[in-house]
Design brief:
Elements: H1 3-15, H2 28-40, H3 44-51, H4 56-60, H5 63-77, E1 89-92, E2 101-104, E3 109-112, E4 119-122, H6 123-132, H7 144-147, H8 151-164, H9 178-187, H10 189-206, H11 216-235
Amino acid sequence: MCFSLLIARTLAEFHSVPLVIANQRSQLVEKLRHYINLLSGVNNELYKRIKLSACPFLNDIPWSKINEDIDRIEQVLTNENSPWPKLTIVNCHNDTQTLNFLVDENENKLSLIDFEHCSRNFWLYDVFNYFLEYAGFETEQPDFDSAYPSREQQRKWLEVYLRHAIFLNDKFERTLSIDELCNLGDRLRPILHLYWSLWAFIEALLNTEAMKKFDYVKYGKWRLNEYEKTKDKFFTQ
């Protein structure tokens, strides 16, 4: 089995580990609010760093507008007339780049590492974060348009995932076609961009040594632009 499809199987098996407490809500909005609170002035010490930053871009970001968008995101995700509340919540890794999957060639299996971002979330979030990582996670301006997997690639990957996703037995998702699942996952793409944008700005402020090797502000700006370009796809029901 190729590496990408091994990831599909490994992720499905990881998601199939039961939650300690069942029927819990996603922590996605909670995580977004945590980041925006750090950046928008709720955390005074970090906010001082923004104001004193040599990078004017951080001072010009409309934090209050992003805060309003996060409120809108919560409204969409909790709308009982939408499919979102029906989706299964699992322990999500939330950082499904390929470097976080270690291969054991002798056993033909993978292991997940680096659980820094782990939280309860929609399983589709992990899947489509992995798809976005096709664009490259080692560059500050990934080409998300040309490198994103085609619908046919998404179908093949999800076919393997669904075969091993025992947690979905008798769940709402089993009533949906693979194309319908792909459509839902594609709608999460803007939220993924927003999450990694906010994370990158915090990294730039708190990890100045790392900035010598990777421009987190540039990367955060790029992901924020992607969010702004695509967010109507999420907010339009």
